[in-house]
Every structure is written in C-alpha cells, then in structure tokens.
Queue: 3 jobs
Job 1
Amino acid sequence: MRILALLLVKTKYDMRNLWLALFTLLGTIINAQDLKARAKEIQEEGIELYRSEMASWYGTDVLKANYDKMENVVGYFSYIDGGVPKCIFFSKNNKVLATVAFPANYNPRDAKLDLVERDFTTRELDYFTIRQSANEKVKTDTIFKHYNNTSMNLIPIITKDKIKKVYAVTGPSVDNIVVFGNDYLISFNDKNEVKNVEKLHKGIIIQNMKDEKVEHTISGLHSHVLENWQTITPTDICTLMLYYKFTNWEEYFIVSKDFVSMWRNKTNNLVIMNEKDFKKLTEMIEKSEKNNSNKN
C-alpha cells in the first residue's frame, strides 16, 4: 500500500507513465500469462455483474413508469440472455409479470417492455431458484452482515459451463459514497442447493465519491487481506463500473501482500501483477522520471 501511495504522489495523478511502463514490463514477466488469464476471467465476470445490475437499476424505473399494478410484484432478477440484459419481475405465484430488455446503452427510452404474464423459461427458473435460495441464506446465515444506510443486492450468475452462483453485494442507500466489501459469493450444486458461502472482503469499505481536499481525484485504492481473494474481485469491478460516472476514477488499485490489481475505467481493462513485479514497475517509472529531469 505504501509503495502505491508513493507512486501516485510522485506521478501527481498523471497515470500515463504508469500504464506505459506497465505494458512494457508485462512483456518480460515469465508468469504474466497465468495472471493475464486470471485477470480475463475476473474482468469478464465483473462486467457481467455490472450489466445485470444496470438492467436491474433501470428496469425498475421502466416498469414503474408503465405498470400500474406494482403491488403485484414481489421480486425481480436480471440476467444476460443471448447478449441482451433482461430484468424479470415476478409475482407471489412465481409467474413472470413483466420483462424489460435493454440495448447496450441502457437508455430507458430504448428498452423493450413485455407485460404479458407467463411462466418462467427453463433457464429463468434456474436463475429464480438460486436467487430465492440465496435470499433465504442472507436472511438466516450469520456470516452475512447488515449495515445502516445500505442494502444488499443479489446478482445470480450461470456461466457457460453451467456453474451456478449468486453474488451478494452491498450498495449505499445514501448519496455521495461508494461501498466496497461486505460482499459474498454463494455457490450452488447441480440441484440448485447452496454448497458454499464465502466472504470476498474482510469487512465493509466506504469511500467518498469526491475528495474535498483534492480538486480532481482520478484514482482510488483499497487493500485486500483475505487469503482466498488477494486480487480484485468481480464485485469490485461491478461497483467501479456502476459508479464511474459519479466518481471520475479513471484508475483504481487493489493492493494485497501478494498482488497489485489495476483497473482502468476508461477502457474496462484489468491488469494483475505480483507485488515483486510491481516494485520493478515503480523502479522503471522512477528511473524514467529521473532521466527526464536530468535532461531538463
């Protein structure tokens, strides 16, 4: 953490030198391919979580504006159907009351609303089942913590390999803050039964969207200490993408004893480095800055 903080100070929040040195260094790191594959997996899942949450955020707005029987809606979930984000609203009788499908820009005016009541599709039934099971788990298992001015959102995921999981993510219910942590991964077996629950962060991390002491903050960071989650998590990426337009954090860093994860919001690009390789990166930047200073 100290090394990264010093790096941010030395570069005066100008991250161009960092990314230039980063991609130069990656070509010389022997184990870069393994970390690159891991980064790709986390990045893709984080983006899927984001797309699902965006459908949920705006799907509710679309439904409220066009449906006058909201009292019949008892829950909802979102998922990606053939590349299209959809938000499904259901009744207490486990019937689909409405489906809201979104284009890539998530503009509510472009959303397609279907108010035909119907049964779940086979795929939707799996999403519904694991989502409901996760909801009961959150209510009854003491591993889950609940904090004032927050709410816990459930995001079901079924991978191409038919791995079923639900991420429980804590979001703020007040303005001007971003919440990381207090998030969990609930894994399921083929019968849609909970087989494991794990914390993704040790606790809750609350950060202000804007730093009053800094006129224009474009970077942020926090640390990870749990042994199983030393790198950035898919939920971290989801949160960063959801709140990017409010924070303007162009880069964000996750630091642990073994790794430094670097997320670039402008390009939705993730790089994960070993801590030792990151030290090499800082040395490259310091050397480059020193040479430039001597030339001037």
Job 2
Amino acid sequence: MAEVLSQSQIDALLNSMMNSDAAEEPKEEKPEKNWKKYDFKSPKKFTKDKLKLLKGIYDNYGRLASSRLNGVLRTACEMEVLSVEEQRYFEFSNILSENDVMMMLNLKLPDESKNPPMMIHISQKLMVNMIDRMLGGTGDDDDVDSSYTYSEIESALYKKVMKYLLDITRDAWGNYIKINLGDQRLEENPGLFQEISLDEPVAIVLLNVKMQNIDGRITICIPGNLLMNIFNIIDKRKHVDGLYDEGIANSRELIMTRLNRSTMEIKAELAEAQLSMKEVCGLKVGDVIDLNKSRESDVVLYVEEQPWFRGKLGAHNKNAAVKIKQCIQEEAPADK
C-alpha cells in the first residue's frame, strides 16, 4: 500500500524543489569597474576644471580656425577638439618622427614673465594637402604618410599656413586673458629641442581637421609652467573682480586706484587747414600755412580724441604750455 504523505511533508518537498530551482538559475554578473592607475610619484598638476576650461578655449579656437581656413583654402574645413589631457613631455615628443617639424610660439603674458614656448604640430598628410590647395591644387592626396619630407619651398609655405592658425590664439584666449604673440619659428629637429625636460608636465590638445576627404590632426603642446602662469593670472583677475561684487566699503577706492594708474593722451589744437594735393606737393622749407585764426585765439584740448577743455596758449618754464579756461561739456547747455 502506497505511503500517504502528510501536509507538512508535502510543503517541505515543495520548498526544497523551489530552492533547488533558484540555485540553478545563473547569477547576473556585474560588470567590473575599470580603475585608472594613478601615479603618486608624479601627481597631476591641473584639475579637471582647468582642463575643462582649456577645452572650452580650444573649442572656440576650432571654430575660429575653421572659418579662417575656409577663406584661405577656398574649401570646407571642419575642426573639433578630440581630447585635452595632462601628460609628460616625452608623451608628445615620442609621437614625432624624424621627418616631422613643429612650430614654436612664444606668448607674452600681462605679467611679462618668461615662459617656454607653445609647440604645434600638424600631420604631414593634412599640411601637404593644405599647401596643395594654396597653390591651386585639389588637395585630395591621401597617399602622404609620416615619412614625407618637406622641401624648402614647402617649409616656407608651412610657416605661412601656421601663421594663419597661430594668429587666432590671441582671439581664442581673449575672453579669459589678454596675451600677445611673440616670436614664431619652425623647429625642423624636434628631437633636439631641450627647453623643456622630458618629465615636465604638459597639456596636450588634440584637434581633428577634416578637409574634403582628408583627415588630419593638429597637436598643441602647452608647457606646464606656461599654463600655470596663465591660470594664476586668470584666478587673480577673478578674485579682484569678485571684490567689487561683494559691496565692500572701499570698492570705490580700489576702482579709482586702478583707474589712476592708466595713461591718457592729451593734445592741444589751435586750428585746422585744408590744402589741395597740388599745394601739399609744392610745400617746401620756409613756406607758411595760413590757419585763418588769430594767434590769441583759444586752443582746444583733446583727451583721447574727445574735446574736453578750452585753453590759452602760453609758456611755462620756457616750455610751450596751455592754461585751461573752460570745460567744453559745461558750456554746451549755454549754447542751446
């Protein structure tokens, strides 16, 4: 006679079967996190915010450079920033081959500090096709590789193309800092460049340029010392600008102190005269030009090309001088 199971035995059997099914179900594997190794011996010098700021600057640079190349090469060029990273200088120098050349650009900062130059490299395929377009060619040679060697004529045109691109640097940084461009020179032996040590931190900006069916890269290497000085000047300016927004008691004095250091051009004008081209060409030493005005008449003082005062011409300590008599702004309502 078959054994009859009790209700408790049936429940236990069902529970064991359910547990065995759950155990057989494969567990979902969680994706492993990829951790980036950090080198504590050479810590990063620039924060993510600084690199993000640098990317924004060169996004603007890419738009300006694309517009400039469109006009110079008479073809559509697209430029975008691929990456902005902090690396060591040898990471940049190692990608250059023996046939590579690069441009060196010195930047003049407002603090007049001496800094190493910025380095710019353009891939041979892109540069050769740019030169071809400048000379009236089609600029679609896709067979150029890194083994290509520039001739003397191409080197001169290389400098010409780079000048178009480097002149935009001042405008790209203009929203953050006022910089002036210094010397520009072509370095034909990048491996011999020793103004920067191989372990010095640098910021490498990689831009991709697409011209018709040609793709190429522009690599900009900014030395760490130069970039630190730029960021320090930007941070100081932000700090000083913030003082005026906080409504501190001596904000007016701070503003006036900065304004008082500025210089303004002042010139005195007695009268004007108009001459024909024939009369100007006939002028010689000893000729007299009639101003149709009395020598006792008032002179007008111009401040930055704006008329501000009327005065009397005279002498002071044996030097020509003007004595201010009246403010032109004050007399304007009386003339109405």
Job 3
Amino acid sequence: MKEDRSLTPKEVAGILKIAKNTVYELVKRGELPAYRVGRKIRIELNDVLAYKQQGKRSGFFPAPGPSRELPPVERMAGHVVVCGQDVLLDILARHLEKYPGGKRVFRYHVGSFAGLTALYHGQAHMAAIHLWDGDSGKYNVPFVRHMLPGVPAVIIHLACRMQGFYVAEGNPHHINHWRDLTKPGVRFINREKGCGTRVLLDEQLRLQGIDHKAINGYENEETSHLAVASTVARGEADAGLGNEKASLQVRGIDFVPMQKERYELVIKKEDLEKPEYRAVLDIVCSPLFKSELQGLGDYDLTETGTIVAET
C-alpha cells in the first residue's frame, strides 16, 4: 500500500476497524486531517497511519462523538439515564423507581463504548461496562481513565459473569479455544464494534497472534447476546461469543466457558452525593437486590456494591 495514497472514509474505517460514521466524527472534530475533492472527503494514508500509531501509544483510540439518539440529560428531567444491556440493569431500574423519592429510569441499550461516550458527553447519568484490557489484564479501569479524560469517576462493582462460546449441542466442531474459531468449516457470528464482548474477542486475538481474517464470519454482527445465541441455535453459525445467561435462555446450544468478566457501573464522582445516586448505591448493596440477582443464576455477587476504583 503506497503511503501517499488518499482514502475514502469507508477505507479508513476498514483500516482502523471502526464505523464509517466514527471516521466522519473524527474528521469533524479535527482529530483526523481530511480534504474535499468535489463533494467527496479524502484522507491521506500517512495521516491514518499517524493516527493509528497515536492510538497504539495511548492504548486506545479516542472516544467517538456524542450519540444523536440521546438528548443531553438536562432534557431528560425526572429520568435517570442508564446505559447498558444486562437484565440486572432492568432490575436496578425497577428498584430505583420504587425507592422513596426515586426517579423514573430511561434504559439505553448500548454497548460499553457507547455508554461511556454518552456519559462523557452528558447524555447519560451512568453506564455499565465490561471492557477488558489485554495488556494489563484488568477490566474497566484503563478504559474509564482513557475515555473520560479529566472527568473524575467512580466505578461500582455489579457482578462477575462468565463469557464463553455458544455452540451447537454436543459441540460438534470441538470449539474449546480461541484458535478453534479459525478451523475450516466453522462459521462465526460476531458482536458489534464497541461492545465489551467484541473488545474481549479482539484483545484475545491480538494477544494470541490470530488474524481475524482467518475467522469465517468475523464481519457478521449481531447486537445482543441473545441474538448471537439464537443465530447459533438456528444453525446459521457454528459459534458465537457471549455471556452464560443467554445460553440458558436459548434451546439447542451448549456453552463453553472462556473468561470471567467484571460488569461494573461508572458514575461521575461529582454526582455521587446526589440523592438518586446514593439511592443506586443503597440498592446495589441491599440484600433484596442481591437476592433477586442470585435467583437468576450466572452471577458472582461476592463484590456487588463495592466501589472498586476512583479515577
């Protein structure tokens, strides 16, 4: 590839492994130099490579811009906006609405990156995340520090969950390790970019030197654990990655455990003493909340309610 070549936003998205809309956001914010040829945007390969190298040095690429789907929290008066996809957030929302002086909750079902971005841009009050940094082996803290620059935050532990492969009953392709996804004939169904499950997969592939191009179906995406499990159950894929709970809800698949993950809630430190946030802390520490989660299974609640880090 010649280094003086100009690229389209779609080509840049492919190189950086991000959505094309994110490329436009980076150009708009001046983080990625670009120019116009007529009505078309073009970006020099050298600038893309420099941006990519900057991301490698810092550990992560800068967060994308605010979501157009959410208004600022000031316009959500009377509601607490909570980002995340796990069912335990629905239980938390129900408890918060019943709490004395509690507020109505708006659940924004997005992945971890989108949740942190919404929190950073003032479009959410809190975000639940499960982002694994392969270099440090730590969950969430490195990403919060990078994606909420200059914003002191508190990370509250919700639960530990098991991530693993969804496979057909009996595991006919013997998929037990990350490299098994590259076996001939194995069709994979992936999660969308920016969610914690996708980050886990990509970090494991990076650390183990596995080229994602060797995985048949790597580019095929679904946007929830249940959708991935259902795709495998229907025989449209042979393997997918997700949490154990979804495997218990879908018939016709087995679950191969791979990694225990930490699911945690991020709140801006300046908000922690406000009544609705204190209510959240009271709820997640309460025996009633923990008992309800215990009844669902697939949760390790040993540290639930603990403030694990301040950034």
